[in-house]
Amino acid sequence: MLWNKCIQFYFHLPIFVRLLLSVCLIMLLFGYIIHMIEPTHFPTFFDGIWWAFVTGSTVGYGDYVPLSTLGKTIGIILILAGGGLVTFYMATISAATIKHEKDLSEGKVSYKGTKHLIIIGWNERTRQLIDMIKTSHPYQDIVLLDQTKNKISYQDHSIHFIKGNPTADDILQKANIHAATHVVITSNPSLKENEADRQTILNTIAARGNNMEITIVAEILTEIQRKNAERAGANVIIRSNDFMSSLFFQSIFQASNIATDIIAKTLEQQQFCTIPIDQSLTSQTFRSCAQQLLENNKSLIGIIRNGEIIIHPSFELITKEDDQLIYLKSF
């Protein structure tokens, strides 16, 4: 009964562990046999093991060699049995390594880390976002979840790719959404605006259903779906069409690229940040807060009060305890 359990346990081990265990057992066995057959030339058990590994791996240093006919016969058997097994072991490791890297590139491997960021949807905005994150937060782990892309170079992007439907629970669990901190849901550029928003809302519902505490940032294209995205569980909603419309307006009526260049440079060199107001800054004027943050190379541009974003308020505005400060910070 015990022997059967040992055999079952052995065959349930990963193939690498089984092969390594088999190699070690064979080398121990032949090391013990040669030590018993020729104790003069192999005075210790370890000397026998050393000879077995050197011979079985076909390295052949020649510092220990059997002299008797029986010992040489054992050496021949070891070369035939152990050498082939060691070669097979190394070939298996090499093949498995290549297959694992291929599976990573094709999005077949589950993510095991924690405190990571999940991005749903691959497009140009996603690529730029990943570049910005890797520049400002190089140690932030990113998991990309997309069902349209077939392959992503693991080395080029330094992200973990998972291919699949972002509304499927098993795919979200492969991304380890339970241990993630944020989910960013981008709009699908290949769909019409209403269809893209509906897909974003479905993705939001699926993400919220798998993690009630995670922060979800969703891109919505039409104003009519904004409330639905909030009901679905999105914490932050980004209206990219509003931003693009503003850029078009500035380009038309400024009759130059100055406005768009300024915005592009701002986004390239600085990032928007929000923090709860420090107790030392409460009950002070906006001007005083801006001056104090400027000493730490932070440009205060607004506040969030009762859920309302106020950009460039009056310098005489008095801050309150529940305010959040909006500032720009250089990368």
Short summary:
With 331 residues, the protein is of the alpha/beta class.
Structural Rg: 31 Å
The biggest sheet, with number of strands, parallel, antiparallel or mixed sense and barrel status, is:
6 strands, parallel
Our count of domains comes out at: 3
**Average pLDDT:** 82
Give the distance, in angstroms, between the N- and C-terminal Cα atoms.
65 Å
The parts where pLDDT drops under 50 for at least 5 residues are none
CATH superfamily of the largest domain: NAD(P)-binding Rossmann-like Domain
| CATH fold group of the largest domain | Rossmann fold
Task: Note the beta-strand portion.
Answer: 15-25%
Oligomer: single chain
**How much helix, percentage-wise, in residues?**
40-55%
- Give me the strand/helix succession: HHHHEHEHEHEHEHEHHEHEEE
**Number of DSSP helices?**
12
How many beta strands in the DSSP annotation?
10
Strand order of the largest sheet: 3-2-1-4-5-6
Label the CATH architecture of the largest domain: 3-Layer(aba) Sandwich
